UniProtKB/TrEMBL annotation:
One of its GO terms (cellular component) is cytoplasm. GO terms for molecular function: rRNA (cytosine-2'-O-)-methyltransferase activity. The gene is rsmI. CDD domains: RsmI. Its EC number is 2.1.1.198. This is Ribosomal RNA small subunit methyltransferase I. Catalyzes the 2'-O-methylation of the ribose of cytidine 1402 (C1402) in 16S rRNA. It is found in: Cytoplasm. The keyword Acyltransferase does not apply. HAMAP family: 16SrRNA_methyltr_I. Pfam families: TP_methylase. It comes from Geotoga petraea. Keywords: Cytoplasm, Methyltransferase, rRNA processing, S-adenosyl-L-methionine, Transferase.
């Protein structure tokens, strides 16, 4: 019976790959990947060379779990990677890992970069307790979520992913429902055009109205009163 390795990969800067992740990928007999093209590019950049790849993504993960469990009987070292960052965090894989435990298949974790954690660390918000929301729903469902957050007394810090073309409407919903709170925007984390911006909801809206966004965005906000 093989072993499943959950491997964190860089979210932008390839130098963020850990020594252990590099060694694990080099020794892998099979790599489960969201997108073969992305993983091939990573392997080539890390000078790892060709590997057996098996597509395991949001579209096909449910119907391929049984097939992967069978592959774990054939291959000794099977790695699960996402396109960037830690697998399972807003990516497929949790059901596979749960199935591995049920089948007594050994699991190992090779921690790596994570956009939500990097954003929290860079934000200046307290890091002892937070809620990660993943990708927000659209329009009225997003507004419904914000109303629930407004009434939630258990958590103060929230982190989520958003797209450049939706960020301003998201921030306007946030301001209208929860109020003018502290917001931190992390764009293109660890990449060439990395940008951090922190301010009140109103200040952030004004800034990005004048400076259109591109790239991958992670947002953190605090329900506490804005700083002075």
């Amino acid at each position: 019976m093989g072993k499943l390795y959950i491997v964190g990969t860089p979210i932008g800067n390839l130098e963020d790959i850990s020594i252990r992740a590099l060694k694990t990928l080099k020794k892998a007999d099979l790599i489960l990947t969201e997108d073969k093209r992305v993983t091939i590019k990573l392997l080539n950049a890390l000078e790892i060379g060709e590997k057996n790849l098996f597509t395991f993504n949001q579209v096909n993960s449910e119907r391929k779990i049984h097939q992967v469990l069978e592959l774990l009987k054939t291959y000794e070292r099977v790695c699960l990677v996402s396109d960037a960052g830690m697998p399972v965090i807003s990516d497929p894989g949790s059901n596979l890992i749960d199935s591995c435990y049920k089948e007594n298949i050994e699991i190992d974790i090779i921690p790596g970069p994570s956009a939500p954690i990097a954003t929290l660390a860079a934000s200046g918000f307290p890091g002892s307790k937070f809620t990660f929301l993943g990708f927000l729903p659209r329009d009225k469902n997003r507004r419904r979520l914000f109303r629930k957050i407004k009434d939630n007394l258990e958590s103060e810090i929230y982190i989520f992913f958003d797209s450049p073309n939706r960020l301003l409407s998201t921030l306007k919903d946030l301001e209208n429902i929860i109020g003018d709170v502290e917001v931190f925007i992390a764009r293109e984390i660890t990449k060439l055009h990395q940008e951090f911006f922190k301010g009140t909801t109103d200040e952030v809206i004004e800034h990005f109205n004048n400076n259109p966004l591109k790239g991958e965005i992670t947002v953190a906000f605090s329900k506490r009163k804005p700083f002075s």
